[in-house]
Request: fold
Amino acid sequence: MDRPASRLGQFSWALYDWANSAFSAVIVTFVFATYFSQGVAADPVTGTAQWGWAMSASGIAIALISPVLGAIADAGGRRKPWLLAFTALAVVGCCLLWYARPTPEVALMVLAVAALANLAFEIAGVFYNAMLPEIVSRDYIGRLSGWAWGLGYAGGLACLVLVLFAFVWTEEPLFGLDNSEESMEHVRISGPLVGAWLAVFSIPLFLFTPDRPRVRLPKREAVRRGLAQLRGTFVRIREYREIVRFLIARMIYTDGLNTLFAFGGIYAAGTFGMDMAQVIQFGILLNVTAGLGALAFGWIDDWLGARRTILIALAGLLACGTVAVIATSTTVFWIAGGLLGIFVGPTQAASRSLMGRLAPAELRTEMFGLFALSGKITAYIGPFLLGTVTWWTGSQRLGIATILLFFAVGGILLWPLREPGERAAGE
Reply:
């Protein structure tokens, strides 16, 4: 496309963040992950380890598939058909989580469905993110990315509030659902609810956000060219040194973030004795502060540059995360967690805008496939390390502390990188 999308097109694109963030907040982080470890698995420690291993397997699959599909999409032109297919798969996976009855007999089935839904959710994000540099001018890419991420946290918050007040915090859940410990329908409904949320709020993107023109190639030829293009990228990898440095740094600090998302609710429940309602309250706090952080740092991104924005956010994550790990008071943990959220959103939003600035126009979807790979190729390490340390020591606190290493190492690797125009922005 030779010019940015209309404001309606840009807003419709950003609304997809609102749509898909419900999956991260409700399924992966706070409600369903906690329900699995506390209610479906044989015991909380076993549930923590099993959930970590399932998300690790999903992450490996994402790392292998996303660059290939990204390269094929670049060769074929359009991104919306791919985005639609994987969004639909994620919706179906969410709906199937209704069958996660509170008994260990269904644990393996639940883990398989959750891993498949997570795979579809993440790969859909490859095609969604690749649209960003083409629907907004370079001068505003940080703001649109930050505002979209902030809108996403608002969507996650709205869905959490709906789960809390319509199903968890009521003696009579909507639709007459059974809230007994033998059934737990009022928690299991979170899966289909997120599926419906994702389906409905993704519709504007498909209606109003422009896509690239279709390249009229037979499917087999698009696949052949895409794979050849991907091979060529790896052969000429030295031409993309700044991108490689960024992807390696992101690979590490994103592993820490993903592990934090996956186990934040589990840690709050296991170490501080929070029940399901309190875990959801804690999730609401994190969504509010993370959304505000993403919105505010969007301006900083366009002013100072995405790299500096990420470094500031990583420093904040280290400081607040350390307090959350050593805290013995529930009040201190709540305060540290709220402050931590302020720096979570900017880390993610600025990473997306930095990739948009660094990626060559003709390779954007492929590069965002590598972007997804960098967030998943080592995704098994964080959950595996946390789960193993938790199991070995019998302490969730020591397990969660391993996340801080990923933030520190990622920041150190990112420090020497320079993004296009950063020096002028600094001046």
Summary: The CA atoms of residues 272 and 330 lie 6 Å apart.
